[in-house]
Amino acid sequence: MERIEAVDFHDIVQVEEPRVSPDGESVAFVRKVPDDESYAATIYVVSTGGDALRRFTVEEGVDSQPRWSPSGDRLAFVSTRGADDDRPQLWVLPTAGGEARQVTNVAGGVRSIEWAPDGSTIAFVQSVRKEDRKEDHDIDVPEGFQPDSPDPRVIDRTVYRSMEQYVDGKRSHVYTVDLGGDRPDEDDEIKRLTDGNWDYDGPTWQDETTLYYTRSVGEPDPDDSLEYEIISHDLSTDETAVLHTTTGWGTVLSATSDGLIAYLFSDPEQTSLKQTEAKVLDADSGDIHHPTADLDRTLGYAATPQWGPNEEQLFFTTPDEGSGALWTVAYDETDARRVLREDWSSLDSAHVGDDLIAFVRSEWDHPGDLFVSTRGGAEEHRLTRLNAKLLDDRAVSRPEELCYENEGTEVQGWLLTPPDFDPEKQYPLAVEVHGGPHAMWTTSGTMWHEFQTLAARGYVVFWSNPRGSAGYGEDFMSAIERDWGDVTMSDVMTGVEEVIEREYVDENQAFLTGGSFGGYMTAWMVGQTDFFESAVSQRGVYDLTSFYGSTDGAYTLVEGDFDTTPSEEPEFLWEHSPTGHAHKVETPTLVLHSDDDYRTPACSAELFYRILRKHGVDTRFVRYPEEGHELSRSGQPKHIVDRIERIVRWFDGYSEYHDVPRALDRDDEEGLSAGETEDEEEPDENAA
């Protein structure tokens, strides 16, 4: 069998956004396939019996957010098909057959679509500038419309860009569209429900005339606050009322037909160290229920709680001790129980139907497929094997769980050995550190391909969930308060010490990499130890002060995790920054970054790289144009492949197990698929 390579990413099919049909007989989902510079994302439908898989939308543009109408006679979705730019628009497709029709043509694009219970209306959100609202470009744009690019860019907000995009005066507002175009001799009608210099989000229906949504507030600066309002909007009278004000990272809602509204809550004090909770507001009485009060797990900020068909049980997902888990709890109780959980697997998304739950799961032996389960979780059935053709011809290694104790705390990790592993031989070690810092790794998910590629190249791969990770309780998550570096390093290196006790691991041939917070840790660790032969730091935080000033809303990580600001403790933050120790680095270190990364802007990567250069360290700085912080997960496929290949090439150049020159001694493209010749594609005979 062939070994997995970085270029295999081009052939890996991704599964996203499952939705159970109202009759429970089908599941719609997004099938996403990498191209060179983009992705083709198309909606497919499969029967819940696992047969009759069929493409439901044309292969043009990027489709997302499939949503069945309440009766199941139509499917709404968002797509960039036919657009001159990336603005997604709302489309509706009859499920009995026929062509999809474009419903909107708006300046801000469309997201967060929600059908009204009677199927006549869809609520949605778009982000649009005041000038475009004034000209009604958020209702319909004229032919030839092109969004303006500000020149100069005038900024008067605390958070004025995010991930890889500038806000540029846009605000998120809630709209409805009456689907008159689905009825004879009528036209669609779009209405703007909100306006002004605020951000609204999370529309959810109680009934066909009552819509709930959120508004981000907070005095004096909503950008510098987690406070948001839950608003009721009576569409028959156009009257609104603020029902409740709360705080949280996520501003998503889910309502029942009798006015129970599930929402996310985060404690505003050092909020990045606190877990996100689910709460329920009774719109009539104002009572607040806290069904996750006794559950020591955090909900992701995008993990929208869902109501079961009886509208009394709430369903939600959390990270859970190296796995993704789906839970359920009665809204007025606190005894949450797991419905779905498979050891070490990722549960990427789930949708609760009347009788079935559809979900996407990635496991150690595949990067993700669609499954269904009974609502109680007793029976599961796999509906797709979309990567079977690729995997049937690839050797996939099975990880081994490695749990160990450090400073009185148990830490969970995994070890992945190369294909055709021989315990009588020795292998180099590749250590990976996750981002976040409050993230959690499994054996699968978005890292499946990278881990398997490193193992296929002859490395034993070790990764773990050190203290600070989500999924192990709030005390575990908050253990890195005011100390990202030493606490995490202690947990990682204790795991490394466990690994190198195995005779097949060469303790003198260890390599290190990580992205985002993992990039911070890679840079931190090479400033504290010369244990590693070489390292690759990706999209990292290198200087906490410049990160605080240049990042998007993630500056709250400094205020929360370190309980300080640069004005209060500049020397303390410098001591806890990798750049404060970069002059001690001797480990050859490759620095990878994205040009349009506004979560961890490149300025501090430039500083770290320059210090390495000034002190004679083997280093190189690789920057990816038109990429943001999500490079490793959803960047341009050619860049994702190039990134993994550069990690492998950098490690190989300092490895005694690979007879190749250092990357610094090779031509820029040598050893990379973008620049290989036939001879260079031959396997390395000296690779383990």
TrEMBL record:
Protein origin, superkingdom: Archaea
GO annotation terms (biological process): proteolysis
Compositional bias ranges of the Acidic residues kind: 666-688
Annotated Peptidase S9 prolyl oligopeptidase catalytic domain residues: 449-654
Record GO terms (molecular function): peptidase activity
Family assignment from sequence similarity: Belongs to the peptidase S9C family.
This protein's name: Prolyl oligopeptidase family serine peptidase
